[in-house]
Amino acid sequence: MTISLRHPGRDPGRDRGTRQGSGLAARIDMTERTFVKITVDPLWGIRVQSRVGRRRKVSVVPSIKSAKTASPLLPDRFTADGTRRRLLEVALMQFAELGYHGVSVRDIAAGVGIKPSSLYAHLQSKQQLLFELSLLGHLEHHDHLQRALLESGSDPRDQAEHLVAAHVRVHATYPLLSRVCNRELAALEPDNRSQVEAVRNHSGQMVLDVVRRGSELGVFTIPDPWLATTAIGAMGMRVAEWWNDDLGYRIDDVAATYAIFALRMLIDGQAAETG
Question: What is the average per-residue pLDDT within 190-216?
């Protein structure tokens, strides 16, 4: 649903408007002859864009809902605090909502409450923010998968169950970070992308190795191990796009249920194909 509004003139008492979105709030300056477009989407929440003449302005700041959520923005492995931590948190929220290329250094600095030039006292560039977030998310995901594999038995079914549950759990626990990691790979500069993809590929290989071994042992009856692994991976990644704490599901329950879905796919794959 799209609503278009035209602000007829400047009202000193209404210079600033805020629309609450899903986890984010978009802040716009209401000036003379400002056209505001509010797009309401049941999955992505509310996006607010303002246009003054030829200038387009979108500013995203944490909303009240985001502040109350039980889901942490960043994993415990990220130990920085103060302005540097706030820079990564604000960049994460803005990248997740508007995309890397839709956010400027000025937007990030405004969200933190500092001057744009002050950002460079903490980080080299906006690209460094994306790289640190991407590497952080992929390392967290990789370590969860590795731990799950070590805690499972030797049966491929048990290994797959643990891996899928861990995969889903990370995406539900850190939904914004997961979105940025999965959506913004192409925005990384070549050297940064190669480092992130090395971690990402190794994580995928852990799952693929289990699926292949299960197929070779006759435990899994899928026609194509690589496609099965890709489907399972995509299924878990999608959790980050819809998950929030208000749905009434426990993360562990979602992870366990998705593991059941994956096992049914792996064990009954050939039967589904021939049936």
Answer: 97
71/175 Cα distance (integer angstroms): 8
Residue type, 179: R
Q: Provide the residue type at 198 as one letter.
A: A
Q: With contact defined as beta carbons under 8 Å apart, do 239 and 165 qualify? A: no
Tens-digit pLDDT profile for residues 60-115: 444 323 433 457 899 988 877 888 899 999 999 999 999 999 999 899 988 888 88
Alpha helices, DSSP H, located in the chain: 64-68, 82-98, 105-112, 116-119, 126-151, 156-173, 175-183, 190-216, 225-237, 239-242, 251-267, 269-274
- How far, in Å, CA of 41 to CA of 78, rounded? 32
For residue 125, what are its two tokens? 């560039």
- Tokens 């249920």, residue? 257
- Alpha-carbon separation of residue 239 from 155, 203, 234, 253, 272 (angstroms): 26, 18, 9, 13, 25
Report the relative pairing of strands 59-62 and 55-57 from DSSP bridges: unpaired
CA dihedral 243, 160, 147, 132 (to 10 degrees): -50
Q: Which CATH class is domain 126-274?
A: mainly alpha
* Paired residues of 34 in beta bridges: 7, 52
> Using CA atoms, how far apart are residues 259 and 160, in angstroms rounded to an integer?
8
- Region(s) of the chain under CATH 1.10.357.10: 126-274
The phi-psi region of residue 190 (left if phi > 0; otherwise alpha if psi is between -120 and 50; otherwise beta) is alpha
What would the pLDDT profile of 164-181 be if each residue is shown by its tens digit? 999 999 999 999 999 999
